[in-house]
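Example for tutorial group B:
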């Protein structure tokens, strides 16, 4: 029997309204540790998993005993999108439960000057998006482009990348990544 620890952890974390960053802080591990586990790129030891679950808090027995229902809903009203970002970057996710799903779709909104950080993001999978409004600077490894409405990006997520809103107006993007990252 195979247990999808990554999606299970993501489901429990989101059910408790925790970001990857907050859970990592509570558990005393790095953000990348949580990200790697949730993307099933890393299998934690029982001890490491227990330490992470203590940050939620949930016990190992409960973690392995529940079986969340797979999402069956096909349509979502704008007000049903789930906010998983915070601060100057809004990430509104389609669906609140991605357990068993292999694709994450987001409506992103970057306020002027908002940035994903000076340290580039790196994780397994692929991601892509289309800019709806505003201007978004996208850096992938040594390549940097400023994208405007209608422009798009698509790359392997293990390539170091960064996003930043440039210009005086917010930037809106529709994006997708697989596997779900947040």
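The residue assignment follows.
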């Amino acid at each position: 029997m195979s247990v999808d620890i990554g999606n299970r952890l993501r489901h429990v974390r989101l059910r408790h309204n925790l970001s990857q960053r907050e859970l990592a802080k509570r558990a005393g591990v790095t953000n990348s540790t949580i990200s790697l586990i949730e993307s099933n790129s890393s299998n934690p030891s029982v001890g490491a998993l227990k330490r992470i679950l203590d940050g939620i808090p949930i016990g190992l027995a409960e973690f392995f005993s529940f079986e969340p229902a797979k999402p069956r809903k096909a349509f979502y009203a704008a007000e049903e999108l789930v906010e998983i970002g915070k601060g100057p970057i809004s990430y509104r996710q389609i669906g609140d439960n991605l357990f068993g799903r292999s694709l994450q779709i987001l409506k992103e909104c970057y306020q002027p000057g908002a940035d994903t950080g000076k340290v580039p993001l790196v994780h397994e999978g692929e991601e892509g998006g289309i800019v709806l409004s505003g201007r978004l600077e996208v850096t992938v490894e040594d390549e940097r482009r400023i994208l405007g409405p209608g422009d798009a990006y698509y790359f392997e997520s293990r390539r170091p990348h960064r996003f930043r809103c440039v210009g005086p107006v917010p930037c809106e993007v529709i994006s997708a990544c697989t596997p779900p990252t947040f």
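DSSP finds five helices and nine strands in the chain. Compare this with the pattern of hydrophobic and polar residues in the output above.
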